[in-house]
Specification:
With about 140 residues, the protein is mainly α. About 65% of the residues lie in helices and about 0% in strands. It contains 8 helices and no strands. The longest helix is centred in the C-terminal third of the chain and has 21 residues. The two termini are about 25 Å apart.
Length: about 140
């Protein structure tokens, strides 16, 4: 069974061993730093830190040898739904989009993230009924 990264150091070492470029590693590191700001102090129902879940997701993507932008998106895949933007609204809002855009210097990367998030949201909404945060919480416990 493969062993996936749970920390940023493990993830970056995994990607380095897989011959991702320095630019790719920089992009992933930037996404990780943003994820740390958005998910600091958050835990999953299992007790695992939210950031460890995000790093694990990125590690799985890296093991599949996908592009660095998709690995970075894996680190930020829950940003709109669970990231701490200082507002209570769940999902994509103009304020959240603006904060993400301001945090990401490379606008091409930001555009790629929005496209990836949009396609993930559309697939998620079409494949299953929407549940409230409270319903999801009860289902996990």
């Amino acid at each position: 069974m493969p062993c996936y990264a749970q920390t940023n150091i493990q993830l970056l070492n995994q990607l380095h061993r897989a011959n991702y470029t320095a630019d790719d590693l920089h992009l992933v590191r930037t996404a990780y730093e943003l994820a740390m700001r958005l998910f600091c102090g958050q835990f999953r129902a299992s007790g695992k830190t939210f950031i460890a879940h995000l790093v694990g997701t990125a590690s799985v993507l890296g093991s599949l040898r996908v592009g660095a932008a998709l690995i970075a998106a894996g680190l930020l895949h829950a940003a709109y739904q669970s990231g701490d933007f200082g507002e209570r609204a769940s999902g994509v809002t103009d304020a959240k989009r603006g904060r993400l855009k301001a945090s990401i210097a490379d606008q091409r990367f930001f555009t790629s993230l929005i496209e990836i998030f949009s396609s993930m949201t559309l697939r998620t909404k079409s494949s299953r009924p929407s549940a409230t945060r409270e319903q999801r919480s009860r289902a996990v416990n």
